[in-house]
Inverse folding.
């Protein structure tokens, strides 16, 4: 069986974790979390990072922080039609107005023309984009549109961290970015996610929201400003002083410890995923639609393709013990959580992905021979 993902927390990692557990006296968020956040920020090229319990929670956290930041002129947010449910659902859960943008015909990120039209028509405050399967959106054009219409840019980099666009890591182009360390991604903390930002106030706001809405984790200058704002001068009462209607989406030091170990391998894993993507591309680009982008290093979650004979391709892959799936969610508007609330709109590129898209394994444990084997099955199926 060639699976979409393979175990990457190995016996050496587990032994190291056991050794740490035997000598540590704190397992919840603590020193390991702080070190992991610092090391992640340095690797990514961002000033601040916040470790949470999943990439989905990371999306929820940044969406909530934007609402409480006071920076939004309205609650309109553009979301990608090709994405994951928990990229989009925080906007619904928090009472925002999500507006679907069609997919780019090449990289499956935001279609720039449609994005521009939506900005002209709706004047949104925020856009959430997804770097689909590790591929960069057309960042230069998107940033230009965001500047023209004064739209805050957030990157969902959950399946793309390590990918680079013009020698800059994805996840460093907007006001904030989200990342997932779930099984199957370029590194794993079992469950886990991260929000990264260069914005000091957003960082502190998210620190508070992550942990109940209190100020215990905040830096001194931010804490002082908030306490003075609410005329709180009793050091004893400060311990349980809740400023925001916060969450509890902290992770543990166990997961952070694993994350620090995984970071020693992540560059190697990303490079292998990039090699596998390139080999697939060489094998298949003349036979089926394949995802492509201006991404110099592709941390490919999987290899995406589109063909009218998707059913035949999928059946033959499964018969040969190869896992495959629809290309992420397909089109978001084709799922009940969306169409029971909103009218369907014309999204031709996303609809095509929904009808004919799929992806196949592209992880770091695969050999070149396995890539060729899967490629041959696909070619023989069309």
């Amino acid at each position: 069986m060639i699976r979409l993902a393979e175990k990457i927390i190995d016996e050496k990692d587990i032994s190291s974790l056991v050794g740490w557990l035997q000598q540590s006296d704190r397992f919840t968020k603590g020193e390991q979390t702080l070190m992991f956040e610092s090391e992640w920020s340095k690797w990514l090229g961002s000033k601040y990072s916040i470790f949470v319990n999943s990439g989905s929670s990371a999306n929820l956290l940044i969406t909530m922080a934007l609402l409480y930041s006071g920076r939004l002129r309205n609650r309109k947010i553009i979301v990608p039609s090709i994405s994951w449910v928990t990229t989009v659902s925080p906007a619904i859960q928090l009472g925002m107005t999500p507006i679907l943008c069609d997919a780019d015909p090449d990289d499956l990120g935001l279609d720039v023309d449609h994005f521009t039209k939506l900005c002209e028509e709706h004047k949104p405050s925020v856009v959430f984009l997804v770097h689909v399967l590790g591929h960069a959106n057309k960042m230069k054009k998107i940033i230009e549109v965001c500047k023209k219409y004064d739209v805050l840019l957030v990157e969902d980099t959950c399946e793309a961290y390590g990918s680079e666009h013009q020698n800059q890591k994805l996840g460093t182009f907007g006001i904030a970015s989200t990342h997932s360390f779930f099984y199957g991604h370029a590194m794993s903390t079992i469950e886990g996610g991260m929000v990264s930002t260069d914005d000091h106030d957003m960082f502190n706001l998210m620190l508070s929201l992550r942990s109940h809405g209190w100020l215990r984790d905040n830096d001194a200058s931010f804490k002082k400003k908030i306490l003075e704002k609410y005329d709180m001068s009793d050091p004893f009462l400060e311990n349980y002083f809740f400023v925001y209607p916060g969450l509890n989406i902290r992770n543990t030091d166990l997961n952070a410890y694993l994350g620090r170990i995984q970071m020693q391998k992540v560059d190697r894993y990303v490079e292998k995923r990039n090699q596998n993507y390139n080999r697939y591309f060489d094998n298949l680009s003349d036979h089926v639609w394949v995802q492509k982008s201006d991404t110099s290093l592709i941390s490919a979650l999987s290899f995406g393709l589109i063909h009218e004979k998707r059913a035949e391709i999928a059946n033959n892959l499964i018969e040969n013990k190869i896992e495959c799936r629809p290309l992420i969610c397909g089109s978001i508007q084709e799922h009940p959580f969306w169409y029971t609330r909103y009218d369907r709109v014309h999204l031709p590129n996303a609809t095509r992905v929904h009808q004919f898209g799929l992806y196949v394994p592209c992880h770091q444990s695969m050999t070149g021979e396995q890539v060729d084997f899967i490629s041959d099955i696909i070619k023989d199926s069309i």
